[in-house]
UniProtKB/TrEMBL annotation:
One of its GO terms (biological process) is tRNA pseudouridine synthesis. It catalyses: uridine(13) in tRNA = pseudouridine(13) in tRNA. PROSITE patterns: TRUD. GO terms for molecular function: RNA binding; tRNA pseudouridine(13) synthase activity. InterPro entries: PsdUridine_synth_cat_dom_sf, PsdUridine_synth_TruD, PsdUridine_synth_TruD_insert, TruD_catalytic, TruD_insert_sf, TruD_pseudoU_synthase. Belongs to the pseudouridine synthase TruD family. Keywords: Isomerase, tRNA processing. The keyword Transcription regulation does not apply. The active site is at residue 82. Responsible for synthesis of pseudouridine from uracil-13 in transfer RNAs. This is tRNA pseudouridine synthase D. The gene is truD.
Length: 345
């Protein structure tokens, strides 16, 4: 088997002492998109609240495109949901000048797809407009039977989780990253990466590299001089040149989080120690960093820490149910890799 090009990024709690199992069947990995609004009831777009099982979001889009006779480009989603899972998400379909089909459930539903509700709306569903994702994950194995998982879970609830991009961002065995490196070395071209997946993979990799270094230095949650901070639960960010007692108190209470770079042109407002660390990490992968800059992507910031929202743990037979919400862009695998060992984490 070919080795993955992805490093084993540092964990905030160190290597878990025991192994575990997850996603043993689709219902053991449940994800529900949480929106801040619902369809208004009228408009050119038909919004569908769908439940899918053992199906990717791309497969769902192709199915709806065929059944409702619209082009895939006229279908909108806020996020891509896991294949081997039971997931719920909204999908919009442009039906300009067309009424909602009277036989809509029969058109939409098939093996692995249920229509939960629907409504008209004036606008297409855009990427990244959902507020959060709610997860319900059933885990089993030695980490559960030996009790180490529950103690580590409480640590994550109290102190947060390193906000790593999950392995799915990099393709099977890191294949997207391999392709991204080759493309950046030649010079990124839109026609060779129309969906931007390779560019996204490259930027996500550098972010994870910076975060891993911050975890090793134990500054991922406590901050560095020159950090840009994110306000919990919002997109608000601000630069904090001096790491004073007020900032340290807010960091300790999970009110704010240090951020890391989504690499691109510009520095995103970071300075001092934080900027020096990020530049040092980027220098270790100069071809990738320069390729991203040459693509024209603008530098952005992403929180280094995730909070588990409304967390709950419940024992069920030989396993445990972990229930929690993560802000948009957070990966459940970032939580699981802190709790137990598993080859996919």
């Amino acid at each position: 088997m070919q080795a993955s090009p992805l490093p084993d990024w540092a964990r905030s709690l160190g290597m878990p002492p025991h192994s575990g199992r997850f996603r043993e069947f689709p219902e053991a990995f449940r994800v529900e998109e949480q929106m801040a609004f619902t369809p208004e009831g009228e408009g050119e777009h038909l919004w569908l609240h769908c439940e899918k099982r053992n199906l990717s979001t791309a497969q769902l889009i192709r199915h709806l495109s065929h059944q409702l006779a619209v082009a895939p480009r006229d279908i909108g989603v806020s996020g891509l949901k896991d294949h081997t899972a039971l997931t719920r998400q909204w999908v919009s379909v442009a039906l300009t000048g067309r009424a909602t089909p009277v036989d809509l459930p029969e058109l939409v539903e098939m093996d692995g797809v249920r229509l939960l509700s629907f409504g008209r709306h004036p606008r297409k569903l855009r990427r990244g407009v959902h507020r959060a994702n709610r997860f319900a994950l059933y885990v089993t194995g030695e980490a559960v039977t030996q009790g180490s998982l529950e103690a580590r879970w409480q640590e994550l609830v109290a102190h947060g989780v390193p906000n790593y991009f999950g392995p799915q961002r990099f393709g099977h065995q890191g294949s997207n990253l391999v392709r991204a490196r080759a493309l950046m070395a030649r010079g990124w071209k839109k026609k060779q990466d129309r969906d931007g997946f390779l560019l996204s993979s490259a930027r996500s990799f550098l972010f994870n590299q910076v975060l891993s270094e911050r975890v090793r230095q134990e500054s991922w949650a406590s901050g560095l001089e020159g950090d840009v901070f994110n306000l919990e639960g919002s997109a608000s960010q601000f630069a904090g040149e001096a790491l004073d007692d007020e900032l340290r108190t807010r960091l300790a209470s999970l009110d704010i989080h240090p951020t890391g770079p989504m690499w691109g042109r510009g520095d995103g407002g970071v300075s001092g120690e934080a900027l020096a660390l990020e530049c040092h990490v980027a220098e270790q992968d100069a071809v990738l960093a320069r390729g991203i800059e040459d693509s024209g992507a603008a530098a952005m910031r992403r929180p280094l820490r995730l909070c588990l929202q409304s967390p709950a743990l419940e024992r069920d037979g030989e396993g445990l149910w972990l229930d929690f919400s993560l802000a948009r862009g957070g990966f459940a695998t970032a939580v699981l890799r802190e709790l137990f060992q598993h080859p996919a984490l």
